[in-house]
Specification:
- Two copies of one chain form a homodimer.
- In chain A, strand 4, helix 6 and strand 5 form a beta-alpha-beta unit.
- Chain A starts with 6 loop residues before the first strand and ends in a 10-residue tail after the last strand.
- The mean pLDDT of chain A is 96.
- The first copy, chain A, has two domains: 7-17 and 96-220, HAD superfamily/HAD-like (Rossmann fold), CATH 3.40.50.1000; 19-94, Putative phosphatase, domain 2 (DNA polymerase, domain 1, Orthogonal Bundle).
- Helix content of chain A is 43%, strand content 14%.
- In chain A, the strands form two sheets. Chain A has a six-stranded parallel beta sheet with strand order 5-4-1-6-7-8. Chain A has a two-stranded antiparallel ribbon with strand order 2-3.
- Chain A is α/β, with parallel strands linked by helices.
Chain lengths: 221, 221
């Protein structure tokens, strides 16, 4: 069908790494509120990345993540101690991968594999190492040097420069539909991991492929 | 306290104009689903403005609003006819103002008053006229000529240029905390109308004033 891919670039959180353990910790700290809190937390975390990018007030993802947490706790009337902030920050460093991830990555090892994430280097390096994936990726790329977040086109361009592969030979994989749309708009061939059977985002840049999880990926590239 | 203000610039939707009638129409079309639908619709409408601004895929607010509606209906499993799209688009053109708005604007008439909104000119002109506010504002400014949305600083700069007033002599009023933060970050003196007792957004640019509604504004300027 399309040009043969030379490289695959993955989003990190929600795509390779399951944030479920963070939700569980929220539920331990605030029984019965874990799901509501983590949803609002995630919403604000992302909103802040977009708003700060537009405002030109970049702050790294680790701090934006804590800002989102503080907002969400305040909105839900939950008290938040500095010890809880530290524990939740740490939980982000030792996330597990989704069950199918390692086997799928193994089948894709004939391609150059990389991560391109909003995460700060101080978050990405530990989570990759803790998951035993250090040797798997030829590059773990953070948006951080650009002081802006996805879906700014310059962010996707980072992967082109770092991998030395033309953009039409790069496949981009994300569980965030807007991220897959941003990458498609930039010029990657895109794979949206639609884990929750959500509708496609109306951004006039629909992903090329919609799959349920990474296990479907090796047959498509 | 601060420099005397020469002009006041208002956000439109949710600040001057109450979108309640749109919610009511949603509830008429999809009984019992009006609130859930309109919340998700609003969330997606805003997300799309930020994402499109970053992706450099601007599309006017009228169309982004319909895109958000289509997504929200799909996510909630509600069928949406083209007639319903038209009716909801039209409802945006004849919103009523919040009860305190006209009296408050009357007390502020010694200042230059303007609107600065994400809305397309094709949406703003009718809603201002239908609410009987045409003579009240010296300028009704849309982001549209810039092909980007709030909180991009260039958008707030539009008001400075159009009004010919330095930014530190302009007060900016919005019910959207992130919008008030964006305006504060740009350099306006800002008033956040916190109608729903929400926490302040953690964007390191907190609004100068937090008030419950516009009736509190005349005493502050």
């Amino acid at each position: 069908m399309s040009v043969k891919l030379k490289a695959l670039v993955f989003d990190a959180y929600g795509t390779l790494f399951d944030v479920h353990s963070v939700v569980r910790l929220c539920d331990e700290f605030w029984p019965g509120q874990g799901t509501a809190l983590s949803q609002l937390w995630r919403t604000k975390q992302l909103e802040y990345t977009w708003q700060r990018s537009l405002m030109r007030r970049y702050k790294d993802f680790s701090d934006v993540t804590v800002d989102g947490l503080r907002y969400a706790c305040a909105a839900l009337g939950l008290s938040l101690s500095e010890l809880q902030v530290t524990r939740l920050r740490e939980a982000y460093l030792s996330l597990t991968t989704f069950p199918e991830v390692k086997e799928a990555l193994g089948k894709l090892s004939h391609l150059q594999l990389a991560i391109l994430s909003n995460g700060a280097p101080s978050m990405l390096d530990p989570v990759v190492a803790n998951a035993g994936l250090r040797g798997v990726f030829s590059a773990v790329i953070s948006v951080d040097p650009l002081n802006t977040y996805k879906p700014t086109p310059d962010v996707y361009q980072l992967a082109v420069k770092r991998l030395g592969v033309p953009k039409n030979e790069i496949g981009f994989v994300s569980s965030n539909c807007w991220d897959a749309c941003g990458a498609k708009s930039f010029g990657f061939r895109t794979f949206w991991i639609n884990r929750s059977d959500a509708p496609v985002d109306r951004l006039d840049a629909a992903p090329d492929h919609v799959i349920r999880n990474l296990a479907e990926l090796p047959d498509l590239v």
